[in-house]
Amino acid sequence: MKHETGTVYFFTGLSGAGKTTLGSLFYERLKSTKPNVVFLDGDQIRPVFGEDSGYTYEDRLKWAGRIFRVCKMLSEQGIDVICCSIAMFSSVREWNRANIPAYKEIYIRVKKETLMSRNQKGLYTKGHNVVGIDLPFDEPQSPDIIIQNDGLQTPQALVERLEAALYHPVYENSVDNVDYWNQYYKNKLCSTQPSPFAQYVATLTDSGKSLVDLGCGNGRDAVYFAGLGLQVTGVDLSDISVQSLQEQNIPGARFVCGDFVNPKETVGDSFDYAYSRFTIHAINERQERTFLKNIYSQLRPNGKFFIEVRSIHDPLFGKGKKMERNAYFYDNHYRRFIVMEELVQSLQEQGFQIEYAKEQSGFAPYGNDDPPVIRIVAKKAAVSHA
Residue 15: how many CB atoms within 10 A of its CB? Predict the structure, then answer.
């Protein structure tokens, strides 16, 4: 049986550069979206091959040949391999490019003074057979990507930069699905009944407070919330949908055509509740960070952020043209599928407290389809006067 060839991601750099830190984080994020991924760290895999290789120039050359023959074998079986090793030989890297069809070389570059200040293993002050001290280091001349890692950015930020470079083209601006959704709402393909998520959220809100429906679509949930006594602002980029809703003059609700990523420009005021159903997967990771930051900023103390979104376990994941990490163009529009743990972490980093987070089927059935969906309730803490 023929397998699709896996990719070998080779993280190289001097000791203390951050190969293992960045490589392992990249591995965790990649593995969350596909099961056939292996992580090989140079220090950890040495004992697996026995103790017949030391750290002299000749031993290191023999060792590098071994590890990359393993990488090649695994990739031929359709397995992606993240390999972190110094492997300081130009000849080895040339062999990799000649013999591994899908090979990505990532050079983690660090200033010498940074390495000396880290000196995690004491190698640079008292070591022997140390690459870059008494053993030569053939600096990569044509790596696919160079990551400068002098501690000015977090590992996550660096890995996101790496992913952006690997998965072209990355959307820097708003993903333009307007034509698709205008036609969708013009054809009246969407139900006008409140979603199960809206009915769940209704049990967590208080009448009289303000709610912003971010990406309100045809207004099915916004109208429902207004009927419950909430003061609702619906935001959507579909001018056809927003115009239709404005013409209905719905009591307790107003509708604005604009970008939900920057609600301050469209909504203006602060609000008690933010409601995002099936909208976060319409924007890229960079937009998501901006979006979460903006929502946290505009939510009032004790305000809540309600999220429902597609996950990487959705049957649609992987269909269509891959645009970037976990994102595909399929059925005439863009979708980015979410890893729940990553979204929870991003919310927490903004300052949110997570009250509820769960992924399961049964949340958003549609006809005969019932994909697993992520639900999150996040809260902005009250201002402390201590």
Answer: 22
pLDDT digits (tens, 9 = 90+) for 78-123: 899 999 988 777 888 899 999 999 999 999 988 877 777 755 555 5
Q: In degrees rounded to 5, what are phi and psi of residue 324?
A: -165, -170
Q: State pTM to two decimals.
A: 0.62
Residues of the chain with pLDDT under 50: 1, 124-125, 128-129, 132, 134, 168-175, 385-386
Q: Which of 17, 60, 58, 64 is nearest to 40 (CA)?
A: 64
Kindly report, residue by residue over 318-339, the tens digit of the pLDDT: 998 888 889 998 877 788 999 9
CA distances to 17, 60, 84, 108, 151 from 111, rounded to whole Å, are 9, 23, 19, 10, 10
Locus of tokens 């708003």: 174
Of 3.40.250.10, 3.40.50.300, 2.40.10.480, 3.40.50.10470, the CATH number of 8-166 is: 3.40.50.300
Domain ranges of the chain: 8-166, 178-380
What class, spelled out in words, does domain 178-380 have in CATH?
alpha beta
